Amino acid sequence: MLSEKLQRAFNEQINHEMASAYLYLSMAAYAHSMNLPGFAHWLELQTKEEKGHAMKLYKFVNERGNRVELLPIAQPASDFKSPAHLFEEILNHERKITALINRLYETALEEKDYAAQVLLHGFIEEQVEEEATASEILETIRMAGEKGHALIMMDRQLARRGMH
Ligand code: MG
User: Fold this and answer.
1) Would residue 69 be called left, alpha or beta, if left means φ above 0 and alpha means ψ between -120 and 50 degrees?
2) DSSP letter at 2?
């Protein structure tokens, strides 16, 4: 079983992952409203991925014989000004998630829960990728500009994102 402290921390992280899924879905809706179907596609896959993270944590808590308690999800932001601003928000958001995962890992260390530590290694690795991807896309948008042809090309590139 997870300790009470760790169980609480896992419940909170499930909530952060679901809130991330909700935020990306709100961003996808913004992209649709801007006629950027490639951005929307990329963001919808991101939503799926975040839900996948929440489910991985959910499964782990169940397997350990604890009970998941779902916490409320606040209304996500819905106005993002521009595509560059959108990816600034994504990068900031993923940095916050990284800090939360690191804190959860610290709790797993304090509680001497080795199985939780092993599970969280995957999450720590994932965050390196999440930040790198967001930063790369943001840099490309900044370099190419976010209007006209450059924006259409970016939208086409994001439309090509595969299952993950
Ligand atoms: Mg995540």
Assistant:
1) beta
2) -
Assigned domain for 164 exists:
no
CA of 151 to the centre of ligand 1 (A): 26
Gap from CA of 140 to ligand 1 centroid (Å) = 23
CA of 148 from ligand 1 middle (Å) equals 32
Per-residue pLDDT of the chain (164 residues; tens, 9 = 90+): 999 999 999 999 999 999 999 999 999 999 999 999 999 999 999 999 999 999 999 999 999 999 999 999 999 999 999 999 999 999 999 999 999 999 999 999 999 999 999 999 999 999 999 999 999 999 999 998 888 899 999 999 999 988 65
Quick one: how many helices (H) and strands (E) in the chain?
5, 0
CATH code at 98?
1.20.1260.10
Phi, psi of 14 (to 5 degrees): -60, -40
How many domains are contained in the chain? 1
The pTM assigned to this predicted structure is 0.94
How far does residue 18's CA lie from ligand 1's centre (Å)? 8
Asked whether residue 91 is domain-assigned, the answer is yes
Q: Residues with beta carbon < 5 A to ion ligand 1?
A: 17, 50, 53
